[in-house]
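re: ur question from earlier - yeah i can do the single chain one, its not a big deal. heres the input i used so u can compare w yours
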Amino acid sequence: MDWWFRVRRVPAVCVGLVACLVLGAVADSIQVPVPVIVGGVSFSFPLPFLLPLAPVCLILHGQSRGGSSIEATAVRPVGLWDAGLMTACTLVMLAGGWLISSMSGHILAAGMARNFLGYLGLALLLRLLTSPRVAAVIVTIFPIACAAFGVDHGVPARWAWPLHEPAYLPAFIAAITVGSAGLTLTLLPITADRLARLLR
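and the output i got, formated as tokens:
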């Protein structure tokens, strides 16, 4: 268990989650302008919607530090521990986002929690096709690409779920779907190498 804590950087992940929630509460009004390729000049991306990328990348960094082939055949339930950690992180973010939104009125915190779940699920799915490092890069670029290509005259497209207001239900459904798929696959003994062999 101590080995798993060190390899997965659990303390750093916990610090990242707390920092994300704190910054999301105090930086509610900060906007990041992103140039829009089609249908507009720029899109003001709320900073809380981007903050979850930090803890997600920390989780992926921890995942990259283990040997996938060794862990797949290990006696220890490494996959179960990983899924438990990510599920706990998701619950902390959802509970924290709801608490901040209800107590302070900063409704963007709920969208921040939504995006954490979606980013994490997308990263876990991409990890099966690439590697944790490549998945981290793609997930980091993804919300910026959504803003650049998924906004028409200031209105986000339906598929660009990271951009929508917290009250937009389809965005929550999309994030929950992607997040649940990624967390479910974490429980399965599937690696990128094994998946590549299956697809041949």
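The chain is about 70% helix and 5% strand. not sure if urs matches, ping me
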